[in-house]
Amino acid sequence: MVFVSHLFLKDKYVDKNIAYSTGDSNLSKLYTMSTEKFDAEQAAKWGEFDLQDINVALSPDSRTAVLTFYAKRYYTVGKGDKVDYSTRASSV
């Protein structure tokens, strides 16, 4: 489910011209994101997003940045109950 966090980060922090690879919290194989994947309808509907302790570390040549943060929110699927969700995530 970290994918949704990446949606937020992509729009806010990443230049549209930079290729963007991501992975999910289930440790599946990394994949390259595309506009179609970002715009796809998601089964989960997410509530407010609370990001905490955002840390950005740059490589010595400043060509790579690693962003780490804690995210807390909730989601629902269909007419189901609200499910609390929190994770520690990173983006490179």
How would you describe this protein?
This protein is an alpha+beta fold. It has one domain. 18% of the residues lie in helices and 41% in strands. It is built from two helices and six strands; from the N terminus they run αββαββββ. Strands 3, 4, 5 and 6 form a four-stranded antiparallel beta sheet that branches. A hairpin with a 6-residue loop joins strand 4 and strand 5. The N terminus is likely disordered.
List keywords for this structure.
four-stranded antiparallel β-sheet, 2 helices, 92 residues, disordered N terminus, alpha+beta
Query: Which geometry do the CA atoms define?
Result: globular
Distance between the termini: 17 Å
Q: Level of helix content?
A: 10-25%
**So what's the oligomer here?**
single chain
Percent strand equals 35-45%
Mean pLDDT: 76
Task: Catalogue the unreliable spans.
Answer: 1-8
Rg: 14 Å
Q: SSE string, helix = H, strand = E?
A: HEEHEEEE
Task: Describe the secondary structure blueprint for this structure.
Elements (H helix, E strand, L loop, with lengths): L1 H12 L7 E2 L8 E2 L2 H5 L4 E3 L3 E9 L6 E13 L5 E9 L1
Antiparallel strand pairs: 1-2, 3-5, 4-5, 5-6
Briefly summarize what is shown:
The chain has helices at 2-13, 35-39, and strands at 21-22, 31-32, 44-46, 50-58, 65-77, 83-91. The protein has 92 residues and is of the alpha+beta class.
